[in-house]
Specification:
The protein is of the alpha/beta class. It has seven helices and eleven strands. The strands form three sheets. A six-stranded mixed beta sheet has the order 3-2-1-6-5-4, covered by helices on one side. A three-stranded parallel beta sheet has the order 7-8-9, covered by helices on one side. It has a two-stranded antiparallel sheet with strand order 10-11.
């Protein structure tokens, strides 16, 4: 098996991995960065950046809808999801190109493929072995599901929500953390009826309580429904809808 040596081998090219690679290269280390998908990882391609692009589109929609309130004659004719997705993908592509150029300029060796951590200082990728004085594991995360909830059809994760081709009429979001409330805000601005279900006592439960109160107040003002302190128990889908059952007996 061919072997390559470097000061540092990093498994995972997401936000943590490429930031580590750039800093190590800045300090004069030779770096191998292994990524199975696209450089930039979840944040750039499936998380932070695309959701912020959608939130910007949602803000523009709200501004158009509310222009008369400040003396600007405007109206919202509708949401073209093909156009919204094209805008979002353009934002991602621009940042992706810039990141690729930055990594190349720092002389970081980018290896695309499935990496396996096989020894304290070695990673194998596609039949080749990369040995470092140090190895950093930055393998990231993935969208999880809930017990009894099968993903498919109209039951989707945030990954699929980023690629919707039309705005749903009604949306139930299971989880009131930062990702859930971002999508709740986007869908409401796009014209959907939204309900957020969170098992813990408040929205964004990992944030300070005052932040939760401010967000909940804003959601009430915008007529975004939310149910806190209640657990999901099941979901049944038909060709046209999904019925979500809650521990409280509501559906």
């Amino acid at each position: 098996m061919p072997e390559h040596n470097a000061d540092l081998v990093i498994l995972g090219g997401g936000s943590g991995g490429y930031a580590c690679a750039l800093r190590a290269a800045e300090l004069g280390m030779s770096v191998v960065l292994v990524e199975r998908d696209k450089l930039g990882g979840t944040c750039l391609h499936y998380g932070c950046i695309p959701t912020k692009a959608l939130l910007h589109a949602a803000e523009v929609a709200d501004n158009a809808r509310e222009g008369d309130r400040i003396g600007v004659k405007s109206s919202l004719a509708g949401i073209d999801m093909v156009g919204v997705n094209a805008y979002k993908d353009g934002v991602i592509a621009k940042l992706y190109k810039g990141l690729q150029g930055l990594v190349k300029s720092r002389k970081i060796e980018l290896v695309v493929g499935d990496g396996r951590f096989e020894a304290p200082n070695a990673v194998t990728v596609g039949g080749e072995r990369y040995v470092g004085r140090k190895v950093v594991l930055a393998t990231g995360s993935y969208a999880r599901t809930l017990p009894g909830l099968e993903i498919g059809g109209r039951i989707i994760t945030s990954n699929e929500a980023l690629r919707l081709e039309e705005v749903p009429r009604r949306v139930v979001i299971l989880g009131g953390g930062v990702i859930g409330v971002e999508f709740a805000s986007v869908f409401k601005s796009f014209g959907a009826e939204v309900t957020v279900v969170e098992a813990l006592p408040r929205l964004v439960p990992n944030e300070d309580e005052f932040a939760s109160k401010l967000l909940e107040r804003a959601f009430r003002r915008r007529k975004i429904a939310f149910k806190t302190g209640v657990k999901f128990t099941g979901a049944k889908q038909s060709e046209s809808s999904v019925a979500v059952s809650l521990e409280s007996g509501e559906e």
